[in-house]
Every structure is written in structure tokens, then in C-alpha cells.
Amino acid sequence: MSVKLEIPSIFRRYTDEKTTFELPGNTIGEVLENFKKRYPRVKKVFFDKEGKLLHSFDIYINGQSIYPLKMEHPVKDGDKLDLVMIISGG
To answer: Which class in CATH covers the domain with range 3-85?
Structure first.
């Protein structure tokens, strides 16, 4: 099973200049774990010390936000995940 993951282009320096990845996994958490294994440098950019996705990011599945994010949320073959940076201000 393969899921497509896309990240913002500003972070491609941590992923050998790639922004789109085909990764295995049955849940969002499994896909992200495989992403970290393949590109260990992303740990310091996207994840906290416990390995959880930072609150400054959201994930969309096939164009739909899955807020609030649950790592056990299932994904299926061919799904597209977008890792989106949340920009806030006042």
C-alpha cells in the first residue's frame, strides 16, 4: 500500500530536494513514521521531542482537513496527504 505525501517546498532541503513522496502505511501515523525513517533530518523540522507532529502543521487527506489530527486515522492506497504549515497572526 502506498500513500502520496506532499510537503511545502521550503522544507525540501531536508529531503534531498524532494517535496512529494510515496510512502507505505495504513494510518497517518505509520506514513509519518516512514517519512521520518527515510529522511531523519525532518524530525527537527516537523516533530517535537516526543516525535509528535508540531502544532504549527495540519494534514489534509485528499484535500480535506482532518482537524483535529489523530495519528490513528486510516489511509488507503492512493490517498494524498498534504502536510500544510499553519500561519497565524493577530
So the answer is: alpha beta
